[in-house]
Structures are given as C-alpha cells and as structure tokens.
Amino acid sequence: MTAPATSTPVEFAGLSREQLMVMLHQMLLIRAFEESAEQLYFQGLIHGTMHLSIGQEATAVGACAALRPEDYILSTHRGHGHCIAKGAEAGYMMAEFFGKETGYCRGRGGSMHMADVETGNLGANGIVAGGVPMAAGVGLSLKMQKLDRVIMVFFGDGAANEGAFHESLNMASIWDLPVIYFCENNQYAMSMAIGKAARIENLSERAAGYGVNGVTVDGNDVIAVYEATCTAVEHARSGGGPTLIEAKTYRWKGHSKSDKQRYRTKEEVKEWQERDPIGRLVERMQRAGLLDESGFTQLQAKVDQEIVDAIEYAKSAPEPDPATILEGVYA
Amino acid sequence: MTRVFLVGEDVGVYGGAFGVSDGLFQKYGPERVLDTPISEAGIAGLATGAALTGMRPIAEIQFMDFITLSMEQLVLQAAKLRFMLGGKVTVPFVLRTPAGAGTGAAAQHSESLENWFVHVPGLKVVMPSTAADAKGLLLAAIEDPNPVIFVEHKLLYRTKGPVPEGYYLTPLSRSEVKRPGKDVTIVATSLMVARALEAATQLASEGIDVEVVDPRTLKPLDPDPIIESVCKTGRVLIVHEAVKTGGFGGELAAVIAESEAFDFLDAPSGGWRVDIPVPYNRDLERRMVPQVENIVDAARRLVKEAR
Predict the structure, then answer these.
(1) What are phi and psi of B151, to 5 degrees?
(2) Which chain A residue shows the shortest CA-CA distance from B73?
(3) Is any Cβ of chain B less than 8 angstroms from the Cβ of A320?
(4) Which of B107, B124, B158 is the last residue of a domain?
(5) Which CATH class is domain A10-316?
(6) Which domain, by its residues, includes B74?
(7) pLDDT for residue B222
(8) For residue B219, what is the domain's CATH number?
(9) Measured between CB atoms, does A171 come within 8 Å of chain B?
(10) B170 is a domain residue
(11) Which residues of B are catalytic?
(12) pLDDT (tens digit, 9 = 90+) per residue, A12-25?
C-alpha cells in the first residue's frame, strides 16, 4: 500500500513492511487474546488461573521473528504470547484455555502448559525455570543430530535465580550448544523486585560467568529485541554456542489472578504503560510511512474478529470424553 | 545415526563411579559417552530435552541419593510432559542410578529411594536382581517410549550369573517367579531377591518350600504372579531394602489385600530397613538392612505360626 517490501528505513533492521505488519498483527493478537482471557475469567467461563503478558508483547514477537519455523522454543507460565508469536492459532489456544478436547493439549494442560509442537513450541511451564534445563537437552539433541536448528528458552528474572538456570547455561556453554537463553526481565518475580533479588544492574552480566555472550536490550522495542535475537541465533547456528539475552520489560497486569499488587505503585505502572511496545511500533511505522490510520484500523478489526472467532470455536468445541481420562500418561 | 547416548558424571574415561561404563568411552567416543559437570538437575534436564526431540539418552545419576537434586525435572517435567501436552510428545530416556547400602558409605551415599518414583504417574521404575535381567531389562528400558528410572543395587555389581548372548529384551512390567515353592511366598526386590533365594535354599533343608517372586518392574507393576503365588501358599513375606514407612512393601500389601489372594492369606509379614538414615558403623549398617538370616527367621515364623 505505502512502501515496497525492500525499502524500509535502516531503523527497522532489514525487516520488510510485510514482516513488520506480521509482527504488529501478532502483538495486537497477543494483547487481544490476553484481554479476552481476563474477561472470560471474570465471566466465569474459564477456571484456574492465568498469567497475562500484556505489556510484554515485544519480547515474544521480536524474539520469535528471529527464528525459523523449524526452530524450537520452550516457554513460561506467562506463555500465551510466545505461543502466538511462534505461529499457533488463537482458536486452538482458546479451546485449550476452555479445557476442550480440540485444544492444543486436549484440555489436559490449560494456560500454563500451552504447547504447539507442530510450530516448534515445546510448551509453557508451570515451574519457574522448568524449561531451562530441558533447553540444554534440546540443544544437545539438535547438535548431535546435526540439525540446522536452534532452541530458544524463555524465562523470567525470577528464573535467573534458580540453580537450574546456572547448570543449564554452563552446560550449553561448555558444549557450544545452539541455545538462546531469553530472559524476559519484567522487574518482578511475583512480588520480589529484581533490584532486591540481585545485586547486579543487568542480569545479562551473568553470561560472563559462563564465558558466553550476554546482552541487555529494551524489551519494549520490538525491533531492538529482534536485532539482538538475530545476532544470538546466527551465533548459535554457526556453532558459536549460547547467548544470554536480557530484555527489560514490564507486565501491566498482576502476576496472576490473586495479585493485589501491593508491591508496586500505580505511578510506576503508568510510567511503563507510556512505553507501550505496541504504541511505539505503530508510531514508528506511521512516522516512516509504513502504516496509515486506516491500515491500523483494518488490522485491529481483523484481530478483534480473530478473537471473536476463537472464542466461538472454543465454546462450541467438544469436552474431553471422561472415558479417555487415562490416556497420555504412558506412551 | 544412532540415537542412544550415555550422559552423566564421570561416565567417560573414568568409566563411572562403579565402573558400569568402563570401556564405553574408548569404544564409542566422546560424542556418545558424555561427561557432565556436577549438575544433577541439569543432567535430568538434558535427558528430558534430548528425549523430547528425537534422542534416546541414558543418563546416570552417580548415587541414587543425588537424584534428590534432579527431582523437579524428573517428577514435574519428564513424567508429566506427555500428559500435559495432550499425548503429543514422548520422553524416551533411561535414568540409571546405583542404590543401596552395604558399602560403608553412610547416610548420603546409600539410599534406596525407588518408591518416591513409584508414586509418580508417567515414570516407570525398574529394579533388576540378576545379571540376565539387568541386560534384558536395560535394553527394554532403552526401547521403551517413556522415562524409566533404572535402579541398580551396588552390591549386585559384584555378583555373577549366566547372561544370554546377543540382543534380547526382558519385557518391562512382568513379575517373575524366581523360585517355585508351595509353603510361603517371598516377594522381594533388587538385592533382596538374591538374599531371599539364599534363604529359600536354607529353608529347603528344613522342609520349608519357599516361592520367590521378583516384580522386577515396580511401576507399572504386574500383580498377577504375586497374587497367584499368595493364593497358592497362603503366606507372604515382603522384603525390600528401603525403609518401611511409605515403602514399596505397603503398595504390595495393598495389592494383595485388594485381590482375591486376601481370602487365602493366613499370615503376612515384611522385612525392610529400619526407619533410620543409613549409619556408618559396619555392624549398625548390617543390622538395619534385611540379611539372609532375618529372611530365614521371618519366613520360618510365618510357616510355623500359621500351621
């Protein structure tokens, strides 16, 4: 519509307008998914709990944009965004959220175990740093099979203080495994501020202790996240081993449904909301003439419709047959 | 390419803390026999992640005591992934680990923690008692599409027995009658099978005919040979090395109590480790674990009292 595919300004790191539109679409879809998830919970249509990633859309999308479809990710309890960014369909995600048989995990996993193996998402995880040791295993497996693939494991600032994180990063380092350790530092491990949980300014400094590259990026700048991840992916693919990326970001909502948010101020939340990753991308694209008002409105309308369709699909999807309750424990 | 590889602490040039992988490094090289840092959570994670994406790892945890450091990856990840992901993945690995007391290694190098894993849906737990079973069950465990905890008793490393040549599989979840008899059933696991067989030989000279049943796979358990045996003898003695409270013996007792064998049962009894950590002192260590003479006494009492 506005600019040809190959001529985006240098600030977009070589991403074409089409690629940027895909990324913006994913970011909007993540936010819409999360907002609808919360509404469905308040309406009593969803039970359990959930961990919303509103405000963190740029980390999921920027990081996954640097991957190929055949690359793997391991995700976290705050994993809806990663799932969408890696290519999952909102309908099957929503069906899983509703606990339905046609959901990605046949209704057995729910929000905290959302996975789409076909698009390389090996699963969200209910345990902080739960996926991190497995990432080294996946990396070892890819290296042994001489596959031209990488594994990116997402984890939070809280997980960086789990022992398993250190064991995993160290092993990936000594064997040059194709693993990207992607830390979404959203400032709080539930209520524990990262400034109280670690003495260092940047968690990426820990990379030095394992002899690997570490980099800290603005996690609310999707292009910066993309660029940093591209460098790490290239390094991993060429046999250079792992990289620790720390993306500083912020979750707008509480940790989970029980969070009264006594540990932070409304002012702080507002300050971060002014650095809205979606708003920043839209603004940049508009400034560069890559997106106009009607283009954005159309995209938002498309996203809204996708969520309506996803919810409708999920509501009408079948419940698991109780006769299948024992399935899937053993292969 | 072959998908099976061995990974663990000192499994390479050293040959494993108990020599189990002696010569494998020389034969298969560093790519298939991989030494790790001292990182038990990491080792369990390596096995899980590699299994998830097409490999068939054999991980070694140097002493079963150290498996406590691997619990999260084994119990919350490896065991549950398939179920949580709606049956869309498999996690085929074997985690071998030496267990048991009798080496003077005291409380942190002598554990028998098998029942912790029996309690976890999604894991299989195998405990061989003979050399032939060790080979056949290990190969079956490697071929199995699930995570298998393979518990090897350290004292059994020193025992000898006939082993068939070539590649063969001893099916998992198949209990075996190791010695037929009609007076009393001893259900024993791992090293206790050997001790039960020795006790049976001694009791035979007193005219007591002992049947010894070895579950071999604790989870999922094959209960039928056990139930059939108890129906036949009417007396059962359960012997394992792990502590009594919360031990596998309780599970066996429940299986028997819930079955038709309960109607035939005149006298149950058990032999197991006293509920204490393993002591260093040679005599104390010996006393706390069932010995042949304890099994002989208990079985004899069962037969005499219930006559």
Answers:
(1) -100, 120
(2) A130
(3) no
(4) B158
(5) alpha beta
(6) 4-158
(7) 98
(8) 3.40.50.920
(9) yes
(10) no
(11) 40, 109
(12) 999 999 999 999 99
- The Cα A73–Cα B88 span in angstroms is 16
ipTM of the complex: 0.95
Measured CA to CA, the distance from residue B263 to residue B260 in angstroms comes to 6
Shared-domain flag, residues B11 and B149? yes
Q: Which amino acid is at B160?
A: K
- If asked whether residues B15 and B136 sit together in one domain, one would say yes
Which among A117, A171, A329 is the nearest to B89, CB-wise? A117
Structural domains in chain B (count): 2
Q: Where are the domains of chain A?
A: 10-316
Q: Which of B44, B49, B124 minimises the CB distance to A141? A: B49
Tokens linked to A259: 């969070």
Kindly determine whether residue B88 and residue A117, on different chains, have CB atoms separated by under 8 Å. Answer: yes
Does the pLDDT at position B168 exceed 80? Answer: yes
Tokens of A329: 């424990």
3-state secondary structure (DSSP) of residue A240 = coil
User: What is d(CA A118, CA A72) in angstroms, rounded to the nearest whole number?
Assistant: 10
- pLDDT band of residue B1 (cuts 50, 70, 90) is low
Are B286 and B228 in a shared domain? Answer: yes
Residue B285 and residue B103 in contact, taking contact as beta carbons nearer than 8 Å: no
Q: Looking at the structure, do residues B118 and B230 belong to the same domain, yes or no?
A: no
Measuring CA to CA, which residue among A174, A202, A205, A175 is closest to residue A187?
A202
CB pairs under 8 A between A and B: 142
| Residue B281 located in a structural domain | yes
Question: Cβ contact (<8 Å) for A123 and B47?
Answer: no
Subunit contact A329:B50, Cβ cutoff 8 A: no
Over range B49-60, report the average pLDDT. 98
Contact B48 A125 (CB under 8 A): no
Q: Of the candidates A209, A149, A198, which has an alpha carbon nearest to the alpha carbon of residue A174?
A: A209
Neighbours of A270 (CB within 10 A): 10
Using the Cβ of A99 and the Cβ atoms of chain B, whether some distance falls under 8 Å is answered with no
Out of B1, B42, B89, closest to residue A136 by CB: B42
Mean pLDDT on A157-182: 98
> How many angstroms separate the first and last alpha carbons of chain A?
51
For residue A68, with 0-12 CB atoms within 10 Å meaning exposed, 13-18 middle and 19 or more buried, which class applies? Answer: exposed
Partners of residue B51 in chain A, C-beta under 8 Å: 137
Residues 136-165 of A with CB under 8 A from B: 136-142, 144-146, 151, 163-164
Q: Check B45 against A167: CB less than 8 A apart.
A: yes
The residue in chain B having the minimum alpha-carbon distance to the alpha carbon of residue A103 is: B86
Q: Could you write out the DSSP letters of every residue in A31-96?
A: HHHHHHHHHHHHTTSS-S-----TT-HHHHHHHHHTS-TTSEEE--SS-HHHHHHTT--HHHHHHH
A134 vs B145: CB contact, 8 Å cut-off? no
Q: Which of B129, B158, B187 is the last residue before a domain boundary?
A: B158
Res B264: pLDDT: 84
Asked, for residue B169, whether it belongs to a domain, the answer is: no
